[in-house]
Amino acid sequence: MRAFGNGTDPSVPPYWDLLLKSPHTFRFPEAVELTVAAEEWVPHIAVREDPVNGIVISGPMANLLDALARAMNFKYKIVRPADGAWGIPRPDGSGDWNGMIGMVKRKEADLALGPFGLTFSRSRVVSFTSPILIDYYRILVRRLKPQPDPWGWRNPFTLGVWISFVVSMLALALALCGNTRLFGISHVNHNETPCKSLSFSEHCWLLFGTSLSQRTNWMPFSLGGRFVLAIWLLIALIATRSYSSSLTSLLAVRTIATPYNYLKDLVNDHHVKLVFEAATALVEHMSTVKTGIYADLAKQSDRSRFVTPPQLYEAAYSDVRTSDTALLVEDTTCRKVLSDDFTKTGRCDFYIGKERYWPLIFCMIVRKDHPIIGAINARLERFTSQDLYMRWLGEQLPNVTACSAAASKVTVQEPYSLRGLWGVFVLLTVGLALSSTCLALEVIIAKRWPPV
């Protein structure tokens, strides 16, 4: 029995008026067969070719279609787009569209499952149903391995603490220098007779040496000077113990780097390859936008690749896992990759960036301005109000939470290696080079201008 037609065609079925007047309760009087366009997009829908039953679908969108078929009394035949695309305008300027949207526009299909992101340009050629879900695009990259930081010896203290430590040492050295010039110094393990005072640099070396737990051979003779020295020893004790304990913790706990959290990170790093799903609302927008981050993305064509939905997972498990490649897809697709990967391997090899961008309302589509949209919307609103679709979708993501909150820091128990400590030896080499330079200058100056 014919299901769809137009309002002026005399062969239109007699239930057309009923469909317009009572969409909430409408059922086809007799079972009809609708042509439904569908393409694989796991976890929403899986499509396979069966030699006996033809094209067979499964997943949340298939469950939704079955529920609509029972509620409205229709059967359906599944067809797939030849190009495997959702649909964008053809570049030839003909006004036609490719993918499933083109099939519905040309009346090769009565409706299409998708789900499709709602955009203005699409709404001009097809009708969108009530929303099924709202999703965002995310960045999917490989999770990097924890790496030792050879410059980690700087991390226990911030730059402000380092500066404060040095300034405090210089201030106390100046105070000690003034005290000893007035009252003199006394040598340790000798008589308490005041001796001559020392220079400011010698006071700096005294405080620097005590901060490194070095023994001192002299101290201020006056009680006030010794009190100043005691204050410094307390400061040095707290600082050095805090530094050593924090450094030990930092060497034992390694941070997993997350370099691609935002789109601007991908735009600025010209070494990372970008993978997009072809013929989507985002790709259509990138082809027309002139400014902003999406225009910047569109300019990265030399390192971008566009694939069909079934190829997304192949790209994730091969390219993204093993190389500097980023997959720019919906959050649900990213979480499906994480879930399936953990189910198969028991590992969390992927990372989802923090930024959520390009939000879209996802719906089914039917022919433009066809009245069956009211009947479909009435059922969809009932289903979504009961959260049925999200429940079906959750069943496709059994282990998604295992990796969505994976630790960004890990504790390691292994000997320190040169890989993690070579920065210290660089510091040692630079220090030896500077001291050797100073020694050479001192020798040269002593020869040219010998002391009197």
UniProtKB/TrEMBL annotation:
<keyword id="KW-1003">Cell membrane</keyword>
<keyword id="KW-1015">Disulfide bond</keyword>
<dbReference type="GO" id="GO:0038023">
    <property type="term" value="F:signaling receptor activity"/>
</dbReference>
<feature type="transmembrane region" description="Helical">
    <location>
        <begin position="157"/>
        <end position="176"/>
    </location>
</feature>
<dbReference type="GO" id="GO:0005886">
    <property type="term" value="C:plasma membrane"/>
</dbReference>
<keyword id="KW-0325">Glycoprotein</keyword>
<feature type="domain" description="Ionotropic glutamate receptor L-glutamate and glycine-binding">
    <location>
        <begin position="43"/>
        <end position="106"/>
    </location>
</feature>
<feature type="transmembrane region" description="Helical">
    <location>
        <begin position="421"/>
        <end position="446"/>
    </location>
</feature>
<dbReference type="InterPro" id="IPR052192">
    <property type="entry name" value="Insect_Ionotropic_Sensory_Rcpt"/>
</dbReference>
<dbReference type="InterPro" id="IPR019594">
    <property type="entry name" value="Glu/Gly-bd"/>
</dbReference>
<keyword id="KW-1071">Ligand-gated ion channel</keyword>
<keyword id="KW-1133">Transmembrane helix</keyword>
<dbReference type="Pfam" id="PF10613">
    <property type="entry name" value="Lig_chan-Glu_bd"/>
</dbReference>
<keyword id="KW-0813">Transport</keyword>
<feature type="disulfide bond">
    <location>
        <begin position="348"/>
        <end position="403"/>
    </location>
</feature>
<feature type="transmembrane region" description="Helical">
    <location>
        <begin position="218"/>
        <end position="239"/>
    </location>
</feature>
<protein>
    <submittedName>
        <fullName>Ionotropic receptor 138</fullName>
    </submittedName>
</protein>
<dbReference type="InterPro" id="IPR001508">
    <property type="entry name" value="Iono_Glu_rcpt_met"/>
</dbReference>
<keyword id="KW-0812">Transmembrane</keyword>
<feature type="binding site">
    <location>
        <position position="330"/>
    </location>
    <ligand>
        <name>L-glutamate</name>
    </ligand>
</feature>
<dbReference type="GO" id="GO:0015276">
    <property type="term" value="F:ligand-gated monoatomic ion channel activity"/>
</dbReference>
<keyword id="KW-0407">Ion channel</keyword>
<dbReference type="GO" id="GO:0050906">
    <property type="term" value="P:detection of stimulus involved in sensory perception"/>
</dbReference>
<keyword id="KW-0472">Membrane</keyword>
<dbReference type="Pfam" id="PF00060">
    <property type="entry name" value="Lig_chan"/>
</dbReference>
<keyword id="KW-0406">Ion transport</keyword>
<feature type="binding site">
    <location>
        <position position="115"/>
    </location>
    <ligand>
        <name>L-glutamate</name>
    </ligand>
</feature>
<comment type="similarity">
    <text>Belongs to the glutamate-gated ion channel (TC 1.A.10.1) family.</text>
</comment>
<keyword id="KW-0675">Receptor</keyword>
<feature type="binding site">
    <location>
        <position position="122"/>
    </location>
    <ligand>
        <name>L-glutamate</name>
    </ligand>
</feature>
<dbReference type="InterPro" id="IPR001320">
    <property type="entry name" value="Iontro_rcpt_C"/>
</dbReference>
